[in-house]
Amino acid sequence: MFMTQTWCFGRRRALVALSLGVAGALAAGPGLADSSAHAVIGTRVAASAATQRPETVNKCHRSKIDVPSCGLLWGLYTQPVPSKAGYRSDYGRFERAIGRRFDIVKAYVDWQQHVTFPSTKFASLASHRRRILYVSWNAINYDTHRVVYYRNIARGDYDKSVILPEARRLKAYHQKIFVDFNHEFDAKAQSGKGGPASYVRAYRHIHRVFQKAGVKNVIWSWVSTGYVGNLKDIKASWPGAKYVDWVGYDPYNFAYCNDAKWRSPYASFHPFYAWLRRQPGMRHKPILLGEYASAPGRHLGHWYASLASTLRRMPKIRALFQWSAPTVEHCPVSLADSASALKAFAKVSKAHYVTGR
Questions:
Q1: Taking Cα atoms as reference points, which of 282, 287, 328, 1 lies closest to residue 189?
Q2: DSSP states of 235-267 as a string?
Q3: Could you tell me if 6 and 227 are in contact, meaning their C-beta atoms sit under 8 angstroms apart?
Q4: Cis omega before residue 118 (within 30°)?
């Protein structure tokens, strides 16, 4: 049941990312969300802004592909709110609320000719190397909803108009940046672009074009839904160890929003983690949680409070992104929707296992 929830959530959630978000927060069901949470964030931000500016907490040495020698890369995805301040204010309000800076932040971008990433606003988050940027690059045009076929990418149809311009942009970026191609490639929302073999050819082609262009600062990530019902397709979609630096998946405790059994972080994270650890070529790679969150419920605060102890049991997980944005599931998984979740998340974000201190 858990993995069915994960797949369902990932499939429908992808529609949110592909449409560049939904305006406003979704309402919670009776008794599910803590209505004081937004006020709590506002109060904490106002109280802390004048007295402190969150510093980067994890200062452990990092490898060439940014695997920390201790602790974790603590990350977040939150939906950008249109404003002059842009991304900085969106992530900044969470940082001030929890009292620390995120190590890594995420954006979803589409496939458009002559449009490159990172945008100026998103890149500002990495100024002075305060944070690492992570980009999910999806084979679809968000404006027209037109999908991009893997076979066209693999045969070079987009080399001049999309891939080479992006390679040049990232080469000139002069900082490390994570890139994953077609996040949750095994989800039903991604069907129609091509099968696993076509996906592998497209992934490898992009990697080779970047390599030929002299791009050396991209850290390559590969992220599936983590749904065990898709294991055959997921395994068939593996580009190969020499093309991938990090492997990832998106575990969720969807629980009460889906009339299902409540799952702890361990029960949510471990099944696919255990599978990855058995796969040749994957088992030696660092693991990231490309998205994770819990549906609301009376145990929500404890769910987040147990994250550090849970992650300690799965030491190959070295980075993770809390999903904190609306979903088309009508299930409030934003940290801003629960005071108890935010409080526990803030405490765990400074735990010794997370920070490496």
A1: 328
A2: HHT---TTT-SEEEE--EE-GGGGT-----HHH
A3: yes
A4: yes
